[in-house]
Design a protein that fits this description.
mainly alpha, about 0% strand
Length: about 230
């Protein structure tokens, strides 16, 4: 018996929008890395960006990051919703939980990865998804994601307590400023790789789900004709 398929109204449009946002973020991220490198006092042959231009690049970086993250959360919600109709038994995550776990401290270090792994496995084989192996692509996606936010938080913490760090550790402001730019540069480089891996991951999962839709549609046709 064919299960009811909770396919969204237009998943293709949402996926295309997400891919577009990921590409925009990728461009902003590359500029972000170049701008931070140029502001290092150790940089030779590359002068610092004009302050206004630098601020605009940083704003573009974080605005596209937030918009991409929102689009990704929505896409993941729908991807899980779609999985509910493939006949998979014993799924641990519901559409609501794949979004909520991103906002719960400590659980957000593990649960989003597990939810994405479950979506991948169901897409590969809905009837025996528990037997499917974890994808190395998802492992890299999650490692890069955690690395990106780790360097972001570290750079943010240092910038917020810059004066206290300089005073207590007897460091120069120039040294600490360079340290912040280096951390932001590493953050940006990790973000570039994370963006590329995420694009690949989204396209593969979308392709697997589309294949399942075509397969179910075919089975429904045969069922109707058989009647």
């Amino acid at each position: 018996m064919v299960q009811k398929y909770h396919y969204t109204k237009d998943p293709t449009r949402l996926t295309r929008f997400l891919i577009m946002m990921l590409k925009l973020f990728l461009v902003a991220d590359i500029l972000f890395v170049i701008a931070n490198i140029s502001n290092l006092s150790l940089t030779i042959g590359l002068g610092p960006f004009h302050p206004t231009l630098y601020v605009l690049i940083v704003l573009a970086f974080y605005i596209t990051l937030v918009m991409t993250w929102i689009a990704f959360i929505k896409w993941k919600y729908r991807a899980n919703l779609n999985c509910q109709g493939f006949g998979a038994q014993g799924m641990r995550f519901k559409p609501e939980s794949v979004t909520i776990y991103y906002f719960i401290p400590f659980l957000n270090l593990v649960k989003p990865y597990q939810a994405m792994t479950e979506i991948w496995k169901v897409g590969k084989n809905p009837s025996k998804w528990q037997d499917e192996k974890e994808s190395p692509l998802i492992i890299w996606w999650w490692i890069l994601w955690l690395g990106f936010w780790s360097f972001f938080l570290l750079a943010y913490f240092i910038s917020q307590y810059e004066y206290a760090i300089v005073k207590n550790l007897r460091l120069s402001f120039s040294f600490l400023s360079d340290a912040i730019f280096i951390l932001m540069t590493i953050e940006g480089i990790i973000g570039i790789y994370s963006c590329i891996v995420t694009i690949r991951l989204v396209l593969i999962i979308f392709g697997m789900q589309e294949d399942l839709v075509r397969g179910q549609s075919y089975e429904k046709e045969r069922t109707i004709k058989g009647k």
